[in-house]
Write a structure and sequence with these properties.
Layout (H helix, E strand, L loop, with lengths): L11 H30 L1
């Protein structure tokens, strides 16, 4: 990679959206696990 190459980093909005989606995915996974545990206890 040359020093003169432009950075192929996505724009800030896209990165923010990806971060949000990642957090949402983690939250959904945790919610699913919690639901499984609650349903398993009953």
């Amino acid at each position: 990679m040359l020093w003169s190459d432009p950075e192929d980093e996505p724009p800030k909005e896209l990165r923010d959206m990806q971060d949000m989606l990642r957090r949402l995915g983690v939250l959904m996974a945790l919610a699913m696990v919690l639901a499984m545990i609650v349903l398993g206890i009953r």
